[in-house]
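Table S4 entry, DUF1998 domain-containing protein.
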Amino acid sequence: MSDQERFVYDAARAVDPLGDLEEEAEKQAKHNRAKVGSARPSSLLYTYGPGSIMDLPQFTIMSTGLDDWERIWRRRGTPPSIHAPRLKQVVRFMLGSNDVELRPHPWQPKKHSRSMEGNDLGVPARVFPQWLRCTGCDLLGKLSQFDYKNTHPYRTDLAIFEHTKCPGRAGNRSRKAMRRPAVPARYLLACVDGHLDEFPYDLWVHHGQPCSNAELPVLKMVDRTAGKGASAVIRCESCQVQRPMNEAQGEAGKAKLPDCRGRHPHLDAFDHRGCGQKTRLMLVGASNLWFPATQSIIVMPDSPQEKAHDLADRIRTTLGDKLDKYRAHLDILRDLLETSQVDVSDLTDPQLAAAVEAACAPQDTPEEQAEKRQNWDPVDLLVPEWQHLLLPMLGKRNEDPKSGLTLATRERGPLLRPEITRVLAVEKLRKVNALVGFTRIDDMDRVGDLSRRLAPLTRTARPTWTVATEDRGEGIFLQLDETSVAGWEKRILDTDVWQAHREAHQRNFERRFSETAGQVDPDSRLKPPRYWLLHTFAHVLIRELALTCGYSAASLSERLYAWPEAENREPAAGLLICTTASDSDGTLGGLVQLSEPTRFQSVVTGALRKARRCSSDPVCSMRTPQTPEDFLHGAACHCCVMASETSCERANRFLDRRFLLDLPGSSLGYFSPDE
């Protein structure tokens, strides 16, 4: 499908703020400065990615699709890329393109606050929503009715929209007209297929009909009870009719809202097929307005098979059409690859010929990619990491410069719990995270569940790149005894507590994923008991480590390796607690120091001791979901186990202290009682 067939898009309205600035400079005209704020790469990936709404001090913006980012990258010749072949392979079939590469955000550090480096880079964004309300007179109008001011080069927080001749509210007519700030009108329309649209205030107040007295009516949004939902009233000053926004709320309000038009404001485009889904009233700051679909890996040393596949892939993407033309002329290929900075100098002619043949192999068809996407399990990304962390090490320290992974063995302390069989200090690691799309209203468990619900990042049907972040840090890895975990898990599966969790998960799945999943068996998505065990253990460890490692608990995150034996997969029972930072130096070593035998056994002992008691006991220790409850935790709350959203990979689901320890009235704990 061509791009024109996919979306209705006006290329003349492309978002290119830096290009607009340059055009105005050539005309020697004064122009407002383009940049309006900044954000960390992690927040631009997980919170404020393309299609999301970011709050600035005076208004809100939406970062655009990656097509508009491409205009920024063209200013820098060859854009940088992030090397992560294993992640790139997964991202490609998720996006349905065989040539996707991973790129960082368009940014460059400055030597000092007033230097000019990186001024030609940035994330393009548009003001959204484009209906604003004057804070002085309640005028509700489109962007063009207000004046934009952003002239201070080092105070982007002063960027503001203003009503230049605000007369004030009724009763203040004697006051002189003055400039007053305008703020975003906070109502939007969204649908479950990822579309988002402005709320049609003019049609709403007139019940779908044009104003009887004016072609362009004057609207006002009167709101005297901020913070109480859709409490505003829309009033037409031209014909004196008004209508409250609370009529659009709830199930009854859905019938009064228009059907979705299929709009993607981040792409500045409409779906050519329309949509037809029912819309829902949303607030600008709603937490369910944007859910990122991301994948991440801890970069491990490439296996021989991965190295060969990566080399063939770089040869194919670098040479393009020249590959078939010169595939029989190895000398010419060597020169072309050397010019493109693909090092093949250490390959013999037979090895290079084999790599070229692999590069010429047919690529996956769209049907094959769709099949991979449908059958792919996120655990597949974790298996190579688990297998590498279990490899015996030659010596006490092993460093791989290419992947950035540095591991060090740790002896077991004499008082360390016998259930923990292996401890590694991960002195250095590199984590790569990639964005593949997003959903609205409901989060998506897996990308293949219902792919049409995943909003695209580009107007092109076959994107050539996606945005990714590269973090460096440190961590502690530990492995539990597989034999004891398997025996404990078998025992748990027959308990009433596990049956209650299973039934609660089914209720939760049917309600929460009703709009972002196809016909999926809920039991296939229920995490096994060992996952609950390791997840709970990771959380109590994070709480204990944060007391002495020098990092806050919100800076520590978990990575769980917990799955039973499958047809092509060995069982796993381990976890990695890590902290990462997006700068080149990573972190400072405070977490790794706690992996030393005496310190780590003290951390484990303290974490398990504190997990036995909760200030909410006995309510917390006896909590079990019952019909119609659908929460996905048992003996766990914010007082004892739950962690911040930056630390937990499952949003504080699948937690239960009873699986960790024997609590009063329960004998389900994996760890044996203290002697």
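The mean pLDDT is 89.
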